[in-house]
Design a protein that fits this description.
single chain; 310 residues; mainly beta; 4-stranded antiparallel beta sheet; 18 strands; 15% helix
Length: 310
């Protein structure tokens, strides 16, 4: 699997994003994510350090949508070889550490001009470019300087949500991003039900609260909510568009769910439900692993950290 601490964004172009990383075997890997219109693709290609030094790392991803085939193809190259690649592949889009075969004719040209065939998952062949870079100096993925760490790059194209994701990734989430809404309180005891009144509050007094589901459903006042927002080493694992209603009255559905994992927290897995850039409810997944929570997602996945692992 991928060592996420080594992930670097290589570049993006026309709905395509490419990262470079090392896997646990020490190989150099290129990961791509493509989302253009109805086309969604993700893939990974890896090579040994020696192979990377000779030829770069090639990746091609293929998808069929409505009977039409779509390709994404690129080659990661070491620092300092972009000019040479531009001369050899004038039909491609060349960045400091990345060559993107942007158009069908560019992919066809790469197939015609370079190298040995490799097989896609459906066993259809496509050629692997042979760039003959012949780099002899030692190289690792962490020496790539084209982009910042992947942790700063999670975005789904919804500005107000992306802003909140950036805060989560930097562990800078604060109470100002919680949507505390007025709900009438009650002096009734027991689990569930409306938020509980303080001793000096009359039955039915509106209080600003945020719904949270843990062992049971309850409501957090602003003065009680800070621990639910504070993270120190959290990672954003899944972002999805919510398609089902909330648990009940007073529990907003939210537009998006953001699953966060923090190994040393209790519980380690939390889902923040977001609408208009604000957290409108929280689920603290008591007794559930990240894999279980991920499998239970009911919605359109916008980002999944596992999608970049083989």
């Amino acid at each position: 699997s991928i060592d996420r601490s080594t992930l670097r964004l290589l570049g993006e172009h026309a709905g395509q994003r490419f990262w470079l990383a090392e896997n646990e075997d020490g190989e150099i890997c290129v990961i791509d994510y493509v989302e253009t219109g109805q086309v969604w693709m993700s893939g990974i290609g890896c090579a040994s350090v020696e192979e990377f030094a000779q030829h770069g790392v090639f990746i091609v991803t293929k998808s069929t949508v409505a009977g039409a085939e779509h390709f994404s193809a690129a080659v990661a190259i070491p620092n300092g070889y972009a000019e040479d690649a531009t001369l050899k592949l004038p039909e491609a889009v060349v960045m400091p550490n990345l060559i993107i075969f942007d158009a069908p004719e560019a992919i066809e040209a790469a197939i015609a001009q370079h190298g040995d065939a490799v097989l896609l998952e459906d066993n259809s062949p496509i050629a692997q470019p042979e760039l003959s870079l012949n780099l002899t100096a030692p190289f690792t993925a962490s020496s790539i300087t084209a982009g910042p760490p992947h942790v700063d790059e999670i975005a789904v194209g919804v500005p107000e949500l992306d802003a909140l994701l950036a805060l989560l990734q930097r562990n800078e989430l604060s109470l100002e991003y919680g949507q505390f809404s007025p709900r009438p309180c009650t002096h009734q005891t027991g689990l569930g039900g409306p938020p509980k009144c303080a001793e000096d509050e009359a039955e039915g007094t509106p209080i600003d609260v945020l719904p949270i589901m843990a062992q049971s459903g309850s409501y957090l006042r602003r003065s009680q909510a800070e621990d639910a927002f504070v993270t120190t080493a959290a990672t954003v694992e899944v972002v999805y568009r919510v398609i089902e209603d909330g648990p009940g009255e007073g529990w907003p559905r939210g537009e998006y769910g953001v699953i966060v994992h923090e190994a040393d927290a209790f519980p380690p897995v939390t889902t923040f439900f977001v609408a208009n850039g604000k957290i409108v409810r929280i689920t603290a997944h008591m007794g559930k692993s990240l894999d279980v929570v991920r499998a239970e997602v009911n919605g359109d996945i916008l980002y999944d950290a596992d999608a970049i692992s083989p």
